[in-house]
Amino acid sequence: MNKVSSLGLAVTIAVLVALPFILPNAYYLDVAIRMAINAIIVLSLNMLVGFAGQISLGHAGFIGIGAYASAVLPTHFGWPPIAALLAGAAMSGILAALIARPIFNLRGHYLAMATLGLGIILSMVVRNETVLTGGPDGIAVPALGLFGFEMTSEKQWYWLIAAMLVVSVWATLNLVDSPFGRALRALHGSEVASQVVGVAVARYKVAVFVLSAVGASVMGSVTAHYVGFVTPNIADFFHSIELVTMVVVGGMASVFGSVVGAVLLTALPQALAKFEGWETVAFGAILMLTMIFLPKGLVPTLAARWGREG
What we know:
Blueprint: H1 3-22, H2 26-51, H3 60-77, H4 81-103, H5 108-128, H6 130-133, E1 139-140, E2 145-146, E3 149-150, H7 154-176, H8 179-189, H9 191-196, H10 201-227, E4 229-230, H11 237-250, H12 255-271, H13 279-293, H14 298-309
Antiparallel strand pairs: 1-4, 2-3
Helix pairs in contact: 1-7, 2-7, 2-10, 2-11, 2-12, 3-4, 3-5, 3-10, 4-10, 8-10, 11-12, 11-13
């Protein structure tokens, strides 16, 4: 990592350590936990969309796989929660590996429609399989436990997810600076040029899609255990659009942009709670305005301006 990345990581850690001591009540702690969960998901999605340049409009489907694995396997089959989490991640990874090659042979809006179709299929499965998933009514999720210890309090969940966020940011920063990350940026710039210099384009596309899907699935499981209940809304199209909007607003191909975008757009629905039904309009307007006035996203734009002024 360079000095700027190290400084950004240090600031992230300092903010996460300070938050529980300055937040006024449990409600704000819950919002902070949801921000951190979304930030981890957006980090994995940004590897696919921002760094590799491959659009995904159905990513919430993988979150749904993880969430329902952690609900269905312990409830109906008696699996330990950790084993169910790992099984959900494995299922997401295998599915992503199977569909990645045919999907990523597509380009432009054809690719967007294919990933959208995948997300819709996964959402419809959990919505219609009422015997296992509870259908539209949802299903309860048992507490997350390991070796007799169960996560019960908001503070416990906060420290767990804060630690996961720090590890995710650190790992992503190192991955971006690795040969793998450089290959992703190369194929984003030009797949033909990447092939000429020896980058195995198809293999890297599959690898980053699998990585992103597994990350989303794990956080889907964590979300399900934290909330204690899961409904099909976790896998629906609007959730996928929320995640893509977080990537775009924070900054594509920006690690800290992923965190900033997740924080801002997780807070937005709370600010619009009085205006029920307007969240969708707000997300659409933010996405449109960002693409017009901040095409590189908030963090890269501010960083470039600060660099020029400095």
